[in-house]
Design a protein that fits this description.
heterodimer, A: alpha/beta, two-stranded antiparallel ribbon, 6 helices, 29% helix, globular, B: alpha/beta, Rossmann fold, 2 domains, 5-stranded parallel beta sheet, 27% strand
Chain lengths: 246, 322
Amino acid sequence: MKILVCISHVPDTTSKINFTDENSKFDTNGVQFVINPNDEFGLTRAMWFKEKQGATVHVVNVGGPETEPTLRKALAIGADQAIRVNAIPTDGFFVAKQLAHVVKEGAYDLVLGGRESIDYNGGMVPGMISKLTGFNFINTCISLEVDGSNAIAAREIDGGKEIISTSLPLIVGGQKGIVQESDLRIPNMRGIMQARSKPLNVMEPIDSNSEINFDNFSKPDAKGSVKLVNNVNDLVELLHNEAKVI
Amino acid sequence: MSVLVYTESEEGKFKKIAFEAVSYAKGIANMLGTTVTAVSINGKHTDQLGKYGASKVLSVSSEQLDNFNALAYADVIAQAAQQEASNVVIISSSANCKYLAPLLAINLEAGYVPNVIELPSSIAPFNIKSNVFSNKAFANAEITTEKKLIGLAKNAFGIVESETSSIQENFSPVISEDNLQTKVTSVEKSTDKITIADADIVVSGGRGLKGPENWGMIEELAETLGAATACSKPVSDLGWRPHSEHVGQTGKPVSSNLYIAVGISGAIQHLAGVNSSKVKVVINSDSEAPFFKAADYGIVGDAFEYVPQLIQKLKEFKRNNA
């Protein structure tokens, strides 16, 4: 089985969110970038397929050279090979077009992405790739087993879960559950050393338009400070008369 | 040229987010000088959509679509959009809508913006504002394609009544077997409880509650308020509560009217998942807990003392306001 894991290079959750160039660009100053958490769950599941079922695991990102440390981290965790599509991602559609091309060229059986990236929260790339490639697609996937060309997955739904049967080739939008938090791996020294000599191929992008122009960004108004009360009567009174939520 | 809106239902009953989506569609239709057509898959009493501004409802009844199937549902909505020559399509932000949206976007060749919070600021160019960076920022984006797909953030626009006489039409799309290859074999779902996605109020517990045996008062508080129960990540990781209750960045998102956090310190990953809730209340014995910076109302104190009092007070309040 040949697996491709799509890795989004995103600011760490604790990052300060600021914008530059007249609020048109995310300010990367002092920001630490990480593997998108939802993608990391998928990558970790891919490691399981590699170790238990002999799968080959490639990772891919669409981005500039500054995203390579994030790909190297994925190699240090255990991926065999990395691909960087050398383009600045402009919108989800553009990224999906690039990745769909990589998927087709690489003859992958299983593509693992995340439910959403924690920066733009688009949640559209895996689904778009599936439609562009004709792969089956499961979103918000919380468990995945593959047996030959058959796959059994669970999908989180509002208030519960669904068990789904489908077949390869398949693309998945994963999230916590596809592996548990405790299964996530911190690269060890041996992995980091090996990652240095693993292939990281740079591919030029295919021609594609974008559909969305991000003109500028803004931030919510600073929140007023919390109103502290010391008894429940005042709290209920405020929730009823001031906040009007009960 | 009408604005098309997909109205989600469950076992025939429309969800609140469907009414909100129709309300929003009506707002856009007014800007465009056109009308709203709703499409419903196995929804009953479709005439009620007129109340929020739908002039026409396309009703699909199909046993093949009894279980949600993203590919098949997206295809039905695309066929409806084609029939109505709709250039603007509105969907909600439920798990199912987010699943089908990218498929629909490619199908329609429509630019898709999810998590939209307002009506467009202009129609030409088509500029729209959405939540990004886990609700820590807004993006103002232009959709440059002729067709537009808009995913409305829950609770962002609200339900607005706009009584319209609506025509009910049966709609029989072509349902291709190819779209039904991914099959739901079983569903595990608690039917007696309000889900986090549907709830107006969510009551959430954290490690401050010391153990799963203490969740009785959280459930009672939730029941008193007609709320859903939720929990922080450590609580689900410890197995005190099911994973399906975990809210936060890697758990479920919450955008309720009221979020009550009991014994939750408010780690940044937790706040990322809940900060689109309108009003946040925190009860925590640690006055330094970061959640107090994000909350609207707070009580610094022992949950075991205050939560039972709050339940009593709310029961009294309900009796007086019934």
